[in-house]
Amino acid sequence: MDFIVYSHRHGKNNLETDSQFTNTWLEIQQALSNITDEMILELHREKYIESNKSLSKAINQLIKEQLAAFRWSSESYIFKDNRYKNKAWRLDFAKDSISVEVAFNHSGTIAWNLMKPVIASELNHVEKAVQTKIGIIISATNELRDSGGFDSAIGTYEKYIEHLVPLNTQLTVPLVIVGLKRPETFYIETYKNSEGKTRGRIKYYDNAESLI
Fold it and tell me: In 10 A of CB 211, how many CB atoms?
């Protein structure tokens, strides 16, 4: 997949120039670049097209598989205390002082998704299970939201960037916002099925053959 990035508190510069982060950052870029339109289509058709209107679950699964190949830890709890071992206090992925959140959920969760890498990086009186230094948020751009069948209320790359300004004081650690771009060869057209549920059908762009 193609993607764009936005840097907060020199996050991108740190990832590209600091030797403790450079290889891990390259793994993330490689993992995303490895995901092709064909892979998304195949998985979406095989597992999700009957139950989901968007490409979110297919893309999410492919990102997880790609990062697992680089030995990233998934669903890592931030704290050791059992009281905080639940989804709210869990990172999607972590490795070598970098945390990653894959954020295709409602825009109301943007502030919390941004704060989780900060909590994982800052000192805390609750004993930590994970200690990171930089956070990465992988999100959908507006164009992927619109062409991938996503709900209009999801937190997009553009909305994450907007939140960085009022939350600047709270977001004390370097962050990088990654925005996934739309597939080049196809898009999702939403419709209502016989049960009145919204589903998505695959449509190809007119120039799709020349792009494959």
Answer: 12
Name the DSSP class of 84. G
pLDDT tens for 82-137 read 999 999 999 999 999 999 999 999 999 999 999 999 999 998 999 999 999 999 99
Q: Where are the beta strands (DSSP E) in the chain?
A: 3-8, 73-77, 90-95, 98-103, 134-140, 175-180, 186-192, 198-204
Residues in the chain: 212
CA 201, 139, 84, 93 dihedral sign is positive
Q: Amino acid letter at 17?
A: T
Tell me 88's DSSP state.
Answer: G
**Amino acid in position 43:** L
Residue that is written with structure tokens 């300004």 in the block? 165
Report yes or no: 17 and 49 within 8 Å, Cβ to Cβ.
no
Domains of the chain: 3-211 (3.40.91.20)
Q: Are 203 and 189 in contact (CB under 8 A)?
A: yes
Question: Measured between alpha carbons, how far is 59 from 55 in angstroms, rounded to an integer?
Answer: 6
pTM for the predicted model, two decimal places:
0.93
Cβ atoms within 10 Å, residue 180:
26
Question: 157-164 and 110-121 helices cross at what angle (nearest 10)?
Answer: 60
What DSSP assignment string belongs to 133-180? SEEEEEEE-HHHHHHTT--TTB--HHHHHHHHTTTTTT--S-EEEEEE
Residues 204 and 185 sit within 8 Å (Cβ to Cβ): yes
